[in-house]
Amino acid sequence: MRRVNFDLDVLRSFVTGMELGSFAKAADRLGRSTSAVSAQLKKLEEQAGIPIFRKAGRGLALTEGGETMLAYARRLLDLNDEAAAAVQGVALEGWVRLGLQEDFGETLLPQMLGRFARAHPKLRIEGRVVRNVELIDRVTSGRLDLALAWSDGTATPYSETIAEVPMRWIGPAEGRRAWEPSGREPLPLAALEAPCLLRKAATDALDRAGIPWRLAFVSPSLGGLWAATAAGLGVTVRTPIGLPASVHALVARENGLPELPSLGLVLHRADRELGPAAARLAAIMLQTVRDAIPGAWHAGRSAEARTTA
Length: 309
Known about the structure:
Blueprint: H1 8-20, H2 23-30, H3 34-48, E1 53-56, E2 59-62, H4 64-88, E3 94-100, H5 108-119, E4 123-129, H6 132-140, E5 146-150, E6 158-166, E7 168-172, E8 187-192, H7 197-209, E9 213-219, H8 222-230, E10 236-238, E11 247-249, E12 262-269, H9 276-292, H10 303-308
Parallel strand pairs: 3-4, 3-5, 8-9
Antiparallel strand pairs: 1-2, 5-12, 6-12, 7-10, 7-11
Family: Belongs to the LysR transcriptional regulatory family.
Protein name: LysR family transcriptional regulator
Pfam family, one: LysR_substrate
């Protein structure tokens, strides 16, 4: 089997085009002509030895081999960029203040901190794991440099939607049921204390579907919510991120429950231009999110861009 050395510039054009949804936009962002990017994509197919794209209506879609190539291209670029950042940023010192939703505290946070610490051992992170309202307040008041929060429609000056994450009905682990849809009892709902975006999404969906419900358990923390759901006290609504083994996502139709929408995941920044340390942490955060929920990832537009588009 011949040894293939993929061109990182080619891979960057490929990945950028897929994330922007347009190779013309990728060419503009990367400072290349559209014809140059087209030539790069042809080169990529030649190097891979397989078709990367297939026709889909008037446009193009990835082949199965193209999907595999995209995943590896992202990993290769991330490793390249991490190596460059580590070499160039070994002398960086100081603090970065980061805020996260509780959903990410046990899943994404350890990965994020590990990658950041390995690349920048002299930098320190001050982290806060709190609810949405507090995250946004702390970013806008300058008490956090970065915050990863669910979208509640609140616009901050420097933010971008980085993913659309599906919401799911969550019940106790396999073999147990918290509710029988054919019964006459209202659905027992386990939820976080208000205000809670996912709690409101659940009650709105149930009301539209004409399904009676009652609050069976209210918790101030995610840990309490998981315990109540695992015990069968009620059904809750969260995303697939960080589900403990004691609960599992339910198939809505099979359980007589309405379908739920997706929830935007937003990266808020305190300033238009981040310092080198915060910018590096933001890049690691985006990659960690993309690895955790690859199907939900998309290149977001800043709040400023949305208002001027």
